[in-house]
Design a protein that fits this description.
The complex is a heterodimer of chains A (1004) and B (458). Chain A has 1004 residues and is mostly beta strands. Chain A is built from 13 helices and 48 strands. Chain B contains 20 helices and 7 strands. Classes of the chains: A mainly beta (1004), B mainly alpha (458).
């Protein structure tokens, strides 16, 4: 409603107030007397239906020109009725549509067809966190997707919904396991620390702690990549209204020390009011591994093995090479990829929602239930139940406003203890059956390590996530508003991993429940934040001024406790800790983080053409030692809407919009964990002589402070042909220095790393292109496209004494951070049958430091997406192509030497050094160099049909609105990549799944 | 009136904006202690030291599982044959240690991690103002001893290594290697200091904390390895003569029990009821062995009536084949109270050290007497060796049979006696002369170039 524009000479502020006043007077106040005849002076009832030419439009505002406190809304069927004089004029407005001015002209029934407003994109208000701006007036760089984009994608993680849709935002899915994580980089990698590059996430004003509560070293590490259970997977995509990504200094400086890596603002769905409506959305579908490797069959494999022994000169097969010494069936063949990770996953979701309310109070309640069966061998299920509540209230005089929203998500993820992808690739094709005739695990007389063992090690994670937030606002004067935002989040995780004795080979003598054990980790994270703010808006004759000042108080407490229960009377009691013989707590940790800041914004707009936006923040964080806790950040952003200059309008009539904007400023990063400056000792939970031991947690180092990031951006935004074609070109250049680095330390220090500020400088620059066009916009047929393309460049600008530092063999000045230093493969020596490598220092030996001089850049050269949306009558078809050009480690990087007892890609039949079974140390060495050479990297560029969605809207029944849809994710991938998946290129993780879903949405 | 309210609210707002430093200063969390206070209290200072023992018993260097030298050096020499599928261990068995072998890396890192802990104890206790003198001496004495003990093994395995005595990472990041001579004198100094600080009283029961005799035992071993015969003899005698505390255990099956009077120092398994990792590592019940078994060459060396061959070796067979495992530690399961702890030093070694030193000093009768003490205990007749060389050969064999699969004794004996190549090239096809030293972990060389050069042959 905010972009309802009546009088363009007034500022946005006056719109708001005016609309508020209009909305506040209810139609009930109008007299409802019927008049037999229409006359100019009499009030008559006017009614009709409002449509977009196809379907009725509910919630359209119908006002009467020059009558300021009267307006009505259309109901769900698009019907409206109001009282007006016969010579009045109706003003009909609706977001996304052109405002229609319709004289009543003595009519009683007026059906109105609204035209879609193709310039409306410019009028949309963009959430910038503490304030919002109209798209056309923004000075910062903000990318956005809305519920419309999200609901077309059958995904469970909000980051998945953003993939390929935003310029400058590179998202990769690290595993196809349900509930697992995504990596996101907004405008490149700023920090030398690989874990210091995640953005700040804000959900309805509350910062979301993204540190995992999970225990990845003992519980989740082998199944979920990275730090384990990801907090973002606690959010329900179906509850999200919009996601804004703040990219440049102008947009992020107001987040100060937390904004260096960009800010992701997530806004949940809010009650819209109007007629009470009930919505259900149900879908179900299937998923599968999208790509598999072509591996050797039994005959090829056994030939490779025999050849390998022959090459090594070993004639009698040793007792432990069961695959060829006769212990295993020589004719058996199993496609382990199919057997272990080849199941079809099934998923379904039911979503019901109710919303409604009056002009002053609106409520929404929504519930979602999702479940998914994994592709792994065995039955593993991921379940998610989400509740969403939103309510708001405005006082009659519009001075007081209260907004509340709450999400509660229960997430339960049942998974095998380990990802079986590597087993599926490595297992010999003639390896024995998984089960014997009795249905027990087959160990083939202790010759076989049965991978089902890892499935018996069941991993279960339960997360409860509550996010509740609200704001309270009071407008003292039309120009001055006091607002306080307060929020609370509570996230709890309970994860368990069991090792029942049945997972062991009975020959080990461990097949007794007294050897069974349970690992359990409990984590909690609670935070609250309070942000009082003052907003002051003032309109002058030719200009407007917006001022905002505010403060933040935030506290987060975090705790984990992990324990091990060993020895059970019976395996059925394995989840009952009371039945365990011994219970040891092996980890107990808790921490407090406090954060305090003041921030402000001054925005001045002159003649609606010249805009200057100043933002700043003074920050204090408990993560730094005494005396290092506070720092200042700020930015200036400017925009010139040159399209409105008379000269431009005359010279370039087809140019409907033109804006030049630029920003410069600084932000920081405090992503280093808590208490890193202290040398603390923590309890190990392990007793010796009855006393629980203490171990040093880290080295003492009080002198580190902020990582500072300065950002510059310049962008040109152009609209042509009434904004039917919009083109944005942005150039950015960001520099990060004073790098906070966990500097890897040699073992002699006792630790793996130390946190310290390093005077190294990293630069990220790039060009982003965004193009939106409405190629065809007819009533029955429309075709829209959006395209984004990013060329990122990352460079280590300076690094004092790099050669003498611990990074000497990791980074090179002038090169990207993502380089890998590898050997240069020169080919196979046909005489020795060994792979050979460039001997850079010509000393006749291949040695790691001296000869790993070949640089491979794994930063994508460019990436982007192309989205097309077609509508024809009741049909809508969308598809998204995602593309990346990059080089990445391939199959050769993670495979063992051909000839060892692991299966290989069929490629080894054509190109390989002579097979060796491991008895030829020269061959083993050469192969280990090969794995770390440029031969193990290759083109991992891909074009992926990321998403398709076909939607059919049933012709309107009375009061019912029904849609049917077919959606797919990761449908097709075009790539030359040698390996499982060019996106997560890990080789040991399940690649992202191909998912197909059928669903219906019903509203009444 | 209305304006007053507004001004009041604005005033509150401005006050709330002023950031306060106190808000962002947080206390150390309840689950951690800052370094300063740990060493002002005996209980917490001791807990840091005790954690080192726990780690040594569980997963570092001298532990009984696949991370420890009992298993690794057993595989590396002619004691064990690896049947398991654990690649890093298999590489030990095949004598194909790559510089990136993860076990090599963890041996190095985990040991230095414990040395860091010990250095925090040493520095913390030295700077502490509130610890009592005898507590201070005890903690310092133990920490110095363990620091020497761990460096001793690092030196034996990796050759020239850094001797870390500081907690300052700026020093330790670029620390260089010490020569073998320097290492010897550093070890000697730490042990002498420790000897002067400790008494013969064990702290607590079951000899799970080192005492003065433990220091003497390591000194004896150190001097033996460095061929300081006189000193080795002297130190070993000091332990042997302490008959109040130590005596040879005549029941061959009671040697490894936790209350054995022959034990000088052992590492405790906790909680109560746990036994050793060694037993879990070596004992198996089915064939083929799931992880590792004794090499037949070793089993065949026992004389027919050697009680050790009968009681410390156990066979497991199926219809076609027989395999053997070490059965010194007999309990691979939990028991109601712990019965066995992992022994680091036992009296038998002192006898054999003195025997060897006496032989080298040409005190052949004395030498034979000590050797016979051990032989007789094992149910064997007196030695038939007469000359110095014969005696030395007999002692070496006795050490092999007495200490097999215990903390790499076999490897160190062959190494110091120059027998590695001649003995191992026959039984181990992968053996090279340069395998006498483990490779330095590649990652460490990359992080600290002062550790270069790499050991020969790697």
């Amino acid at each position: 409603m905010q972009n309802y524009s009546l009088n363009k000479k007034l500022g946005a502020l006056w719109h708001l107030i005016l609309i508020g006043i209009i909305l506040s007077s209810t139609p009930a106040l109008a007299k409802k007397r019927l008049r037999p005849q229409l006359s100019e002076r009499q009030q008559n009832q006017i009614s009709g239906i409002i449509t977009d030419g196809r379907t009725p439009l509910p919630g359209v505002t119908i006002a009467i020109k020059n009558r300021i406190n009267y307006a009505v809304l259309s109901d769900f069927d698009g019907k409206y009725s109001l009282i007006a004089k016969a010579n009045d004029t109706l003003v009909v407005s609706y977001i996304g549509y052109k405002t229609a001015i319709i004289p009543i002209n003595y009519r009683k029934n007026i059906h109105i067809q609204l035209q879609e407003d193709i310039t409306s994109l410019q009028e949309v208000r963009i959430n910038a966190g503490y304030y919002s701006v109209k798209e056309k007036e923004r000075t910062g760089s903000i990318a956005r997707i809305t519920a419309k984009d999200i609901e077309k994608q059958p995904v469970t993680n909000v980051l998945a919904a953003m993939q390929g849709r935003m310029a400058g935002v590179n998202i990769t899915q690290t595993s196809g396991v349900p509930g697992s994580g995504f990596e996101i980089q907004i405008r490149g990698r700023n920090s030398l620390r690989t874990d210091g590059n995640s953005p700040l996430y804000i959900v309805d004003g509350m910062p979301l702690g993204t540190e995992s509560l999970g225990n990845s070293s003992f519980l989740s590490g082998s199944i979920l990549p990275g730090a384990g259970v990801n907090t973002l997977s606690s959010l329900n995509p179906a509850d999200i209204e919009s996601i804004e990504v703040l990219k440049d200094a102008d947009a992020t400086a107001i987040y100060g020390s937390r904004g260096a890596n960009g800010v992701v603002l997530i806004t949940t769905k809010k009650a819209k009011g109007g007629k009470t409506t009930f919505t259900t959305n149900t879908f179900s579908g299937v998923g599968q591994i999208a790509r598999r490797l072509k591996l050797l069959n039994t005959e090829q494999y056994l030939n490779m093995r025999r050849q390998a022994f022959k090459n090594d000169g070993v004639t009698t097969y040793p007792a432990n090479v069961h695959d060829i010494n006769g212990n295993w069936d020589q004719n058996r063949y199993t496609d382990w990829q199919k057997e272990l990770i080849g199941n079809t996953s099934r998923h379904r979701q039911i979503d019901v929602g109710l919303q409604g309310g009056s002009e002053s109070t609106k409520l929404l309640l929504k519930m979602t239930n999702y479940n998914e069966i994994s592709v792994f061998h065995g039955d593993f299920e991921y379940k998610k139940t989400a509740f969403q509540f939103s309510g708001n209230h405005r006082s009659e005089n519009q001075k007081f406003q209260l907004d509340l929203s709450m999400q509660y998500v229960l997430d339960q993820n049942d998974l095998p203890g380990s990802d079986l992808t590597l087993d599926a690739i490595n297992l010999a094709p003639n390896a024995p059956a998984l089960y014997d005739n009795g249905g027990n695990l087959n160990w083939e007389n202790s010759t076989f390590v049965n991978p089902i063992q890892k499935i018996k090690e069941e991993y279960l994670a339960k997360t409860d996530f509550l996010n509740a937030g609200g704001s309270f606002a009071y407008r003292f004067f039309p120009s001055l508003e006091f607002k306080t935002m307060a929020g609370f989040t509570d996230s709890r995780l309970l994860e368990t991993k069991i090792a029942p004795s049945t997972m062991y080979n009975p020959a080990l003598g461990l097949d007794n429940s007294s050897f069974s054990f349970l690992l359990q980790n409990k984590g909690y994270q609670q935070s609250w934040s309070l942000e009082p703010q003052l907003h002051w808006n003032k309109a002058f004759v030719n200009s407007t001024l917006n001022v905002l000042v505010g403060a933040t108080f935030q506290e987060r407490t975090f705790g984990t406790q992990a324990l091990r229960a060993f020895g059970f009377a019976n395996n059925r009691l394995i989840y009952n800790m009371a039945a365990a013989n011994t219970i040891t707590i092996f980890n107990n940790d808790n921490s407090v983080y406090r954060y305090n800041a003041v921030f402000g914004r001054v925005n001045y707009t002159y003649r609606n053409k010249y805009i200057i936006n100043l933002t700043g923040r003074r920050d204090g964080s408990s993560r730094f030692g005494p005396g290092k806790q506070f720092a200042n950040f700020g930015a200036v952003g400017m925009a010139w809407l040159f399209g409105k200059e008379t000269l431009v309008e005359q010279l370039l009539p087809s140019l409907s919009f033109g804006k030049l904007r630029s920003s410069y400023g600084s932000t920081g990063s405090d992503q280093i964990g808590d208490y890193q400056f202290l040398d603390t000792f923590s309890s190990t939970g392990l007793p010796y002589q009855g006393i629980i031991g203490l171990q040093p947690t880290r080295l003492f180092n009080p002198n580190f402070s902020w990582e500072r990031n300065t950002k510059f951006e310049a962008a040109l935004e152009l609209g042509f042909f009434n904004d039917r074609v919009m083109l944005t070109t942005a150039y950015f250049k960001n520099k990060s220095d004073n790098q906070l680095v966990g500097i890897p330390l040699p073992g002699t220090t006792g630790f793996a790393s130390i946190q310290s500020n390093f005077p190294a400088e990293v630069e990220n620059k790039g060009i982003e292109l965004e193009w939106h066009s409405k190629i065809i916009a007819k009533t029955n047929f429309s075709w829209n496209t959006s395209f984004n393309l990013t060329f990122p460049k990352n460079k280590l600008v300076s690094f004092p004494d790099l050669a003498g530092s611990t990074y000497a063999n990791q980074y090179v000045v002038g090169e990207p951070l993502s380089i890998r230093m590898v050997y240069h493969y020169t080919g196979m020596n046909t005489q020795t049958g060994l792979y050979e490598f460039e001997d850079y220092n010509k000393d006749g030996l291949i040695r790691s430091a001296e000869d790993r001089k070949m640089l491979i850049n794994t930063t994508p050269e460019f990436f982007g997406g192309l989205q097309n949306s077609f509508t024809y009558k009741n049909w809508q078809f969308d598809f998204l192509l995602q593309f990346v050009k990059q080089i990445a480690p391939n199959f050769n990087n993670f495979k063992s030497m051909p000839g060892l007892s692991v299966n290989q890609s069929v490629d080894v039949l054509n190109e390989s050094q002579p097979f060796s079974a491991g008895f030829n140390s020269q061959a083993s060495n050469a192969y280990s160099f090969y794995r770390n050479s440029d031969a193990a990297f290759g083109d991992a560029s891909f074009v992926r049909l990321k998403n398709i969605a076909l939607t059919y809207t049933l012709p309107t029944l009375s009061g019912w609105d029904c849609k049917l849809y077919l959606q797919g994710q990761n449908i097709l991938t075009f790539t030359k990549y040698k390996g499982l998946d060019p996106e997560n290129y890990s080789g040991v993780r399940i690649p992202p799944l191909r998912v197909l879903t059928l669903g219906t949405q019903l509203t009444f | 009136m209305k304006n007053t309210k507004i001004y009041y609210l604005l005033f509150c707002f401005v006050v709330s904006l002023s950031s306060c430093e106190e808000f962002v200063s947080v206390e150390v969390p309840g689950s951690q202690l800052s370094g300063e206070i740990v060493f002002e209290d005996y209980k917490t200072a001791e807990a840091v030291l005790l954690n080192v023992y726990t780690k040594m018993n569980n997963n570092v260097m001298v532990c009984g599982d696949g991370n420890g030298i009992s298993v690794l050096l057993g595989n590396y020499t002619d004691e064990l044959k690896c049947y398991g599928l654990n690649i890093p261990e298999l590489m030990f068995y095949q004598n194909e240690l790559a510089t990136i072998n993860p076990t090599i890396q963890s041996l190095w890192r985990n040991t230095y991690n414990l040395i860091y802990s010990l250095n925090t104890v040493i520095e913390g206790v030295e700077n502490s103002v509130s610890l009592k003198q005898h507590d201070r001496d005890r903690l310092l004495g133990e920490a110095l001893f363990v620091r020497a003990y761990l460096h001793f093994y690092l030196n034996e395995l990796f050759g020239e290594i850094p001797y870390v005595t500081s907690t300052d990472y700026r020093i330790n990041t670029s620390i260089g290697k010490q020569t073998n001579e320097a290492l010897f004198s550093l070890l000697e100094d730490d042990l002498l200091r420790s000897e002067s600080l400790l008494t013969d009283n064990y702290t607590g029961i079951h000899r799970v904390r080192p005492n003065k005799s433990t220091v003497l035992a390591l000194q004896a071993r150190l001097y033996l390895y460095h061929e300081k015969w006189e000193l080795a003899k002297q130190k070993a005698s000091m332990v042997i003569n302490n008959s109040v505390l130590y005596s040879l255990v005549m029941d061959i099956n009671a040697v490894f029990l936790r209350n054995s009077p022959g034990t000088i120092w052992q590492l405790m398994s906790a909680p109560e009821g746990k036994n050793t990792l060694d037993a879990k590592s070596f004992i198996f019940k089915t064939v083929p062995p799931p992880s590792r078994a004794l090499q037949e060459g070793l089993v065949n060396k026992f004389e027919i009536n050697d009680l050790r061959g009968i009681n410390w070796v156990k066979s497991v067979s199926n219809s076609s084949r027989t395999f053997y495992h070490a059965f010194k530690y007999k309990l691979n399961n939990d028991t109601s109270t712990s019965m066995e702890y992992s022994i680091q030093f036992r009296l038998e070694e002192m006898y054999l050290i003195r025997a060897e030193a006496n032989a080298e000093l040409n005190l052949l009768d004395l030498s034979a007497a000590d050797l016979n003490s051990i032989r007789n205990k094992a149910g064997l007749a007196n030695t038939t060796a007469l000359t110095k060389d014969e005696l030395l050969t007999a002692i070496l064999k006795e050490r092999q049979l007495e200490f097999f699969t215990e903390l790499g004794h076999r490897f160190f004996d062959l190494k110091r006696r120059g027998g590695l190549d001649s003995v191992l090239s026959g039984v181990k096809p992968g053996w090279n002369t340069s395998d006498v030293l483990f490779p330095l972990p590649e990652n460490e060389l990359l992080l600290n170039p002062n550790l270069l050069p790499q050991n020969d042959g790697h």
